[in-house]
Design a protein that fits this description.
- The structure is a single chain.
- By secondary structure, the protein is mainly α.
- The protein has a domain of 92 residues.
- 82% of the residues lie in helices and 0% in strands.
- The chain has 8 helices and no strands.
- It is rod-shaped, with a radius of gyration of 26 Å.
Length: 186
């Protein structure tokens, strides 16, 4: 593959990045070709030594989304980072998607439980409206206790969600470096 073909494929694989970022990356790879040519290497040898432009694009996109997820923890940034890391290799489908689904399930279950406990007095009021003769003070006081417990669970889930999010983004970074071969044993 010559210089033009390599850069064209790399540009196509970077379609999710902004134009400015694409230009910077393409200029870096053009420099690689210029340096290789000045050393007397043919374009085909230079492109082979750089690797697959599609894989390079996947790695750069994964790095980009991981950086965004580290800078700003939002559901969208984390989902994009997960999909980008999964895209690095088929093996990541199991290694990344499995833990992500498990962690997401635990976090959602905690939030749903806390919110359900918080709205329990509303459920007692709805029950009183539907069945007026079924009102008992025990139901009311128990639902108030559940509301307090739900507030505590929700506060706890704030901290748990932050901790898990930080840990999972670190795991994604570790996995991406492992897949790219960036982990060195010193």
């Amino acid at each position: 593959m010559n210089r033009e073909q390599f850069l064209k494929q790399l540009n196509a694989s970077l379609k999710k990045l902004s134009d400015e970022e694409k230009e910077d990356i393409l200029q870096d790879f053009e420099e690689h070709f210029d340096i290789g040519k000045s050393e007397g290497k043919p374009e085909e040898e230079i492109s082979k030594s750089l690797g697959s432009p599609n894989q390079i694009g996947k790695e750069l996109i994964a790095t980009h989304y991981l950086g965004k997820a580290e800078d700003h923890y939002s559901a969208g940034n984390i989902f994009r980072a997960v999909w980008a890391v999964i895209g690095l290799g088929f093996f990541n489908l199991v290694i990344v998607l499995g833990p992500f689904i498990a962690i997401l399930s635990v976090v959602l279950a905690g939030w749903i439980t806390g919110l359900a406990f918080i709205i329990s007095p509303l459920l007692v009021l709805i029950n009183v409206v539907i069945y007026p003769g079924a009102f008992e003070l025990f139901d009311l006081f128990f639902s108030i206790a559940l509301t307090g417990l739900g507030i505590l669970i929700a506060i706890g889930m704030l901290y748990v969600t932050r901790f898990i999010t930080t840990g999972f983004v670190r795991y994604l970074n570790y996995n991406a470096k492992l897949v790219k071969g960036g982990l060195k044993h010193e």
